[in-house]
Amino acid sequence: MENTTVENKGNTKWIIRWIIIFILVSIVGSFFWKYNNFVSMEEWVKTAWSQVENQYQRRYDLIPNIVNTVKWEANFEKSTLEAVTQARASATKTNININDAKEMADYQKEQAWISQALSRLLVVSENYPNLKANKWFEDLRVTLEWTENRISTERMRYNEKVQEFNTFIRQFPNNIIASMFSFEKKNLFEADIKANEAPKVEF
């Protein structure tokens, strides 16, 4: 009887040990799973941001061609051309730190300035029949319109990924893991109304 009791106690100890081991393994496994989720979600945000930058780069590349085409039009507003050129020149910063609110805010202001300058140029160009009849200028206008739409789409996708990441990072126990491994909140692309609107390019 005593042997049976001792044996039962021994079995119980082993069961408790295995339960403790299982719990510890589950906790460690959950920890690594959460960490890997952080890494994956942060990479999704970075990828989405790179697509935003790609579309802005496409617009940068279009601007010199647009300016060169327009500047040959007699008496075209010099101030309008200068505004576009200066706006592009000021928006030369690359490798934006999306964790830095000030860098993001400055970047958004620069992009808004470019959008407004281009919008002004295209509106003014409506007064020049030769430009409206210029096939090269028309192609550039259509490409710019498409690019502005892509910028808007990629910004929206980026913001969606940021919102997912920022929500995940605030949840318990994710906030503890985030603090341990320095995962930081990302900044949304909060452009103003004018910057969100594609330039009016209808002739």
Describe the protein.
- With 203 residues, the chain is mostly helical.
- It has a single domain, classed as de novo design (two linked rop proteins) (Up-down Bundle).
- It has 7 helices and no strands.
- α1 packs antiparallel against α2, α1 runs antiparallel to α5 and α2 packs antiparallel against α3.
- The C terminus is likely disordered.
List its traits.
single chain, 203 residues, de novo design (two linked rop proteins), 78% helix, rod-shaped, disordered C terminus
Helix content, binned percent: over 70%
Distance, first to last CA:
100 Å
Number of strands: 0
Number of domains: 1
The gyration radius over C-alpha positions equals 28 Å
**Count of helix runs:** 7
Name the CATH homologous superfamily. Answer: LemA-like domain
Beta-strand residue fraction:
under 5%
What is the CATH domain class? Mainly Alpha
Net shape: rod-shaped
Q: Low-confidence spans: pLDDT under 50, at least 5 residues?
A: 193-203
- Please state the structural category: mainly alpha
